[in-house]
Each structure stands twice: as structure tokens, then as C-alpha cells.
Design a protein that fits this description.
Blueprint lengths: L1 E3 L2 H12 L6 H18 L6 E6 L3 H15 L3 E6 L7 H9 L3 E4 L3 H5 L4 E5 L14 H9 L3 E5 L21 E5 L4 H4 L3 H5 L1 E5 L5 H4 L4 E3 L2 H7 L14 E5 L6 H12 L5 E5 L3 H7 L4 E3 L11 E4 L7 H12 L4 E3 L2 H4 L3 H5 L5 E3 L3 H8 L3 H6 L1 H12 L2 E4 L4 E4 L7 E4 L11 H14 L4 H17 L7 H16 L1
Parallel strand pairs: 2-3, 2-5, 3-4, 5-6, 6-7, 7-8, 9-18, 10-11, 10-13, 11-12, 13-14, 14-15, 15-16
Antiparallel strand pairs: 1-9, 16-17, 17-18
Helix pairs in contact: 2-3, 3-4, 10-21, 11-12, 11-19, 16-18, 19-20, 19-21, 20-21
The structure holds ligand NAX and potassium ion (K).
Potassium ion (K) binds next to strand 5 and strand 6.
InterPro entries: Carbohydrate_kinase_pred_CS (IPR017953), CARKD (IPR000631), Nnr (IPR030677), Ribokinase-like (IPR029056), YjeF_N_dom (IPR004443), YjeF_N_dom_sf (IPR036652)
Cofactor: K(+); Mg(2+)
EC number: 4.2.1.136, 5.1.99.6
């Protein structure tokens, strides 16, 4: 598992550790890790040209000490001081002693143009708001130069706790972060500014960090959660997933949701609705009925919504599924037929899987607002509906109705997933994991993980059916 902790938690753990170690020791650990990452990126340190962007806090101190280490290995460097009177004194002294030159913000763009490596030490976890006006041209110059841009702890200008970006921010090729990941490094739009992530252990005590704000499953976590048949399993004990999707108008959604469901580990898939003929043509193993979920027979979880349309039958399908005392996943058209009260009344878990536009409609807000503040939106939806909410996007988030539990973030997705029907496959897959017995947030986060991985393992441009076909490869990939 990869964890992200809030700034408050980091400050608390750092404070406790600082009381136990000699003054300056943490900054030296940070600087050593940062210098090592810089050296790896450069390949050859001797003769490399460095530029250090230095703000007024300890983030600049880290950058200056790291640069001093690289200068002692034969690099040359210039520090661009954004607040000359407030730059980290000891860091600056070490940098000068190692032969570093110093300039003001005005001289920055010129040196950046010839740099091999730019260290962004403008702000870290102490930063508020976007970059200040004097820093903006430097961030732009860094991005336009051929230099590798390494953010120190965080790309300056992004919000560490939420992943929001208020105004201009540094765009890094890599970020070297200290002690623990910060939520902003894992959630878009900030995550996209961070580039490749590298975590440097500075000795923070996990007990002092406390419960993370965010967690991201890794291969081993997913492998441990995947349902596996045992010697005693039969198809019913493995779980039956019901799919109420598709309509006369959109029969394809039925086929795609069933495709995902067949690859999610349940023992059998029941389909209920008007798309049965199309489903059987592609998946003869499906148990098909034409009525609503109520008359479809026993299942351990329902998936309702993809391609349902907004007819009376669609409404009945959603109401029927919600009335069943089993986990229910509601997606796409189904989301438009929901009320928070109907979801809150349920005792079995409910999973909602909106994309940003659907989430915006549920919250009564603009889509851009949801995209800019994904963490806030997913938490708010989970609280309002008392449901597990999977907010789709480049960094998919899964929030539990219990606000104390960390939000899960999935980073396996790729841009090619934005293709028609891809969400239908995800619904079927996640519903199948629910039917196989996974808890709601595990089913949602494992579903998102496998779905993204399947995309990575597919030929591109990919189609939704390719994704379903690639799921066994994703399954194998995490299990190996
Ligand atoms: N506290 C610790 O024990 C350690 C801290 N470390 C580093 O210290 C950083 C935190 O240091 P600080 O608390 O000094 O905070 P920062 O260095 O992140 O920034 C705070 C300073 O920036 C100014 N500032 C705030 N928003 C700004 C903006 N938008 N534009 C320009 N300036 C802005 C503030 O006035 C303040 O002077 C971490 O991110 C990490 O890099 C590391 O050295 C490891 C140890
Ligand atoms: K930074």
C-alpha cells in the first residue's frame, strides 16, 4: 500500500522526530535523498549545470543543501533567490561554500535556459495558493528548457492536502518527497504536475503519522484481495452477479457490462432486461431473463444503470435493485434515477460510480468544479448518499461513507480509457467483485485497478471490449 498523509500529520510526526535527533538532521536526510535522485536523473554529475529555485522556507533549504552536495561532485550551479532576505541561511552558506553562484528572480530565466537540472525549492508543504507572480516566469522557463525539473517535496504551487491547483504551478519531471506521500502527489490535477515520484525515508514514525488521508493499492494488495475459487467452490458459492443494463436503444451497454462481470471473479452472471439477445450472442454463458431485477432470481450483488435510458422500465430496474438486500452498484443512467434518501435507507452497501459530469449533476455543481476539487467532491458524495463512491477520472478516487477511512486513489488508469463503453466494463467488473464477497471499497478500488491495468496491457487505441478481454491478463499480472 502507498499512503498519503495530510500536512498536519507530517508536521506532527516531523515535530516529534526533530525532538529526538540533532538539529538539522532531518534536512540533511532530505537533502541526501534529493541529491541522489538528482544524480540518477543526470547520469553524470561532473560538469552538469544546476539551477536551484529557492523560496523562503525549509523547502529552499533542502534544495540548497542537495545542490551543495552535487556541486561537491563537480556540478556547477546557480541559486535563484525569490526572497533574498529570507532564503534559508545555512543552506545558502553551504551552497556558496561549495562554489555556487547566486542571483535574484530577474536573472533566473537566463540561467534556466542553459540548465541540465532545475531543483524546485520554492515552496513545499508550507506553500499557500499558486505561485506568486515573480515565480511564474521561472516555472515556465523551467518547463520550456531542456532541463530535468525535480520538485522538492511537492511541485510548488499545488495544494498538498487536496491535489487542487489554484493558479500557476511548477510542472516537474520528477518529485522527491520526504517521509510520506502527500495526497496532492497522488490526485489530479496536482499529480499530473509531479511527474515520477520518489519517496525518501527521513525516519518518520508511522504511529506518529497516524491514519493516512489517502491510500493507493499496489499489486500485492490487489493480489491479496482477489477472489479465488477453492476446492469447495461451485458457481453459486463463488457468487452470482446480476446485471440490469442496456435497453432496446442501447443494447451494447448490456453486452459490455456483462463482459466485465464475467471477468470479475463471480461464478455466474444473471442478466435482466431487454438486451438479452445481444448478450447471449456474445456471451452464451449468461443466465438471461427479460423482466426487471425483482423477478430475475437470486444474486449476491446487482449492477444497475449502464445504458438503461430514462424510461419507466429503467426506473423500475433501479428501484428493484435498490430494494434487494444485497450490495448494489449504480452507474451511468441509474445515477440520474437516484435520491440520497433511497440510498441511505438501504442496509446493504451501495456503490456509486460517477464520472466527473455525473458527480457534478448529483452535487448540483459545474463539472469543472468537480474536476478541480476531486477529493472534496468524492467525500461529499459519499457522505450525502451514505454510499461508497468511485469517482472516475485520470486518478480515480474511492471514498467510503465512513469519513474516518482513508480515500483510495487509483493510478493505473491511462488516457486511452476515455472510450465509449469503458465505464460499462468497469461496472460489471466491480459488481462481480462485490458478488464474490469483497467489501464495497475493496471491490471498487480493485475494480478500478484491474480496469486501468487492463488498459495498459491492451493494444491502443483500445475499445471497451478489448478491455474486458485484457482483464485476465491484468489478473495474471497482479498475481505473478
Ligand atoms: N519540517 C521538517 O522537519 C522538514 C521539512 N522539510 C522541508 O521543509 C518543507 C516545509 O518547510 P516550511 O514549513 O518552511 O515551508 P515551505 O518551505 O514549504 O514554504 C513556506 C514559506 O513559503 C512562503 N510561501 C507560502 N506560500 C507561498 C507561495 N505561494 N509563493 C511563495 N512563497 C510562499 C511562506 O511565507 C513561507 O516563508 C517541506 O516541504 C520539506 O521540503 C525537510 O527538510 C524535511 C524535514
Ligand atoms: K517544491
Amino acid at each position: 500500500m502507498r499512503y498519503g498523509h495530510s500536512v498536519e500529520a507530517v508536521r506532527r510526526a516531523e515535530g516529534a522526530l526533530m525532538a529526538r535527533v540533532p538539529e538539522g538532521a532531518l534536512m540533511q536526510r532530505a537533502a541526501a535523498g534529493l541529491a541522489a535522485a538528482g544524480a540518477d536523473l543526470l547520469g553524470r554529475v561532473y560538469g552538469a549545470r544546476l539551477v536551484v529555485l529557492v523560496g523562503s522556507g525549509s523547502n529552499g533549504g533542502d534544495a540548497l543543501f542537495a545542490a551543495a552536495r552535487l556541486l561537491r561532485r563537480g556540478a556547477s550551479g546557480t541559486a535563484v533567490l525569490l526572497a533574498p532576505e529570507r532564503a534559508h541561511g545555512e543552506g545558502l552558506a553551504a551552497f556558496r561554500a561549495a562554489g555556487g553562484r547566486v542571483t535574484g528572480a530577474d536573472g533566473g530565466a537566463g540561467v534556466i535556459a542553459h540548465a541540465d537540472l532545475v531543483l524546485d525549492g520554492i515552496t513545499g508543504i508550507g506553500g499557500k495558493g499558486g505561485l506568486r507572480p515573480e515565480a511564474e516566469p521561472l516555472a515556465r522557463a523551467a518547463r520550456e528548457s531542456g532541463a530535468a525539473v525535480v520538485a522538492v517535496d511537492l511541485p510548488s504551487g499545488v495544494d498538498a492536502d487536496t491535489g487542487e491547483v489554484h493558479g500557476p504551478a511548477v510542472h516537474a519531471d520528477a518529485t522527491v518527497t520526504f517521509g510520506t506521500y502527500k495526497p496532492g502527489l497522488l490526485i489530479d490535477p496536482a499529480a499530473e504536475r509531479a511527474g515520477a515520484l520518489r519517496l525518501v525515508d527521513i525516519g518518520l514514525d508511522p504511529a506518529e503519522l497516524g491514519t493516512p488521508a489517502l491510500e493507493a493499492l499496489q499489486h500485492a494488495d490487489v493480489a491479496a484481495l482477489l477472489p479465488r475459487p477453492t476446492g469447495e467452490s461451485d458457481k453459486y458459492r463463488r457468487g452470482v452477479v446480476g446485471v440490469a443494463a442496456g435497453s432496446r436503444r442501447y443494447p451494447g451497454a448490456a453486452v459490455l457490462a456483462v463482459s466485465g462481470a464475467l471477468r470479475g471473479g463471480a461464478g455466474a452472471v444473471r442478466y435482466a432486461g431487454p438486451g438479452g439477445a445481444a448478450v447471449l450472442a456474445r456471451h452464451p454463458e449468461t443466465l438471461v431473463s427479460t423482466g426487471s431485477p425483482h423477478s430475475a432470481g437470486r444474486v449476491q450483488a446487482w449492477v444497475v444503470g449502464p445504458g438503461l435510458g430514462d424510461t419507466a422500465e429503467a426506473r423500475t430496474a433501479v428501484d428493484d435493485a435498490l430494494a434487494a438486500d444485497v450490495p448494489v452498484l449504480v452507474d451511468a443512467d441509474g445515477l440520474r434515477l437516484l435520491t440520497p434518501e433511497a440510498v441511505r435507507r438501504r442496509t446493504a452497501p451501495t456503490v456509486l460510480t460517477p464520472h466527473a459530469g455525473e458527480a457534478a449533476a448529483l452535487l448540483g455543481r459545474a463539472r469543472e468544479e468537480v474536476e478541480a476539487g476531486r477529493l472534496r467532491a468524492v467525500r461529499e458524495l459519499a457522505a450525502r448518499f451514505g454510499a461508497t463512491v468511485l469517482l472516475k477520472g485520470s486518478t480515480t478516487l474511492v471514498a467510503d461513507p465512513d469519513p474516518e477511512r482513508p480515500v483510495r486513489v487509483n493510478a493505473t488508469g491511462i488516457a486511452w480509457l476515455a472510450t465509449a463503453g469503458s465505464g460499462d466494463v468497469l461496472s460489471g467488473l466491480t459488481g462481480s467483485l462485490l458478488a464474490a464477497g469483497l467489501a464495497a471499497r475493496d471491490a471498487a478500488s480493485v475494480g478500478a485497478y484491474l480496469h486501468g491495468l487492463a488498459a495498459r496491457l491492451s493494444e491502443v487505441p483500445l475499445t471497451a471490449l478489448d478491455l474486458a478481454d485484457a482483464l485476465p491478463r491484468a489478473w495474471r499480472n497482479v498475481s505473478e
